[in-house]
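Step 1: inspect the first sequence and its tokens.
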Amino acid sequence: MGILSKLFPNIFSSTKDNLDTKTEFKETIIFHDSFLLMGTNYHKKEAYQVADFLSGGEHYFGKDNKYLKSYILRTYKTVYKYNKLKTVDVILQREPLNKHDKNAIKVLVNNTFVGYIPAEIARKIAFMIQNKKYRYDAILTGRGGPYKTVDLDTEKIIERKKELSYYLDLTIWKIAK
């Protein structure tokens, strides 16, 4: 259970109307956490495919090297090829036949594998995924891949390699009538 729901349990419960049956459901947050997805580096092709999809093909802020040099010198920040990737169009899918972990939960965006929920978290929540008594809200964010910076003389832009990283902010709700 996330720290906010522990501190403010009454804030994190709500009542919703089901439009079809007019039955009232009480939803209570029973899990909330943010974490780095695992396995992304073993599935680089898929990870970059999702990054291209989420970025709409715009890389390095969509700016040229002249602009990037000015930005880097002004902010002292490197610029990643994939910056500020974000989506709520996330599907969690159990993978009980996974030979490494029977509780494995893979994360999909646009029907493409992005990564796995860490094993210690998957063990706690696996039974809730794809169970009608629970629902989840997930926000996937990411950034990384190659990045641009300036050389030591701050004269020209250079490109370096870095892994692409995805994080998931996951909230699971228990639904009760």
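Step 2: inspect the second sequence and its tokens, then contrast the two.
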Amino acid sequence: MLHLTILATAVPHTVTWSPAVGIVMIICNVIAIALGKMTMATPSAQPELMMPEYFGGMGFPALLATTSLGHIIGFGAILGLANMGIL
């Protein structure tokens, strides 16, 4: 029972959502999409998006992969910037 009490007190402080947090996440996603567009062998793989011209001709799998990576990068960036006191 003592271990559960210690574990409950070990929850880190997380930053609350603000426009600055949203901007950091958007920037990280744009960077990940740009990296994915430059490095993927077939970024236009099927199935296509409804309006692929808005995403540079990327297909759904490429968009899903790059935005997933962007959220992972953004998660780390937001936690790091919050820990440094910037956010």
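Step 3: confirm your contrast with the notes below.
The first helix runs from residue 2 to 9. The chain has a mean pLDDT of 83.
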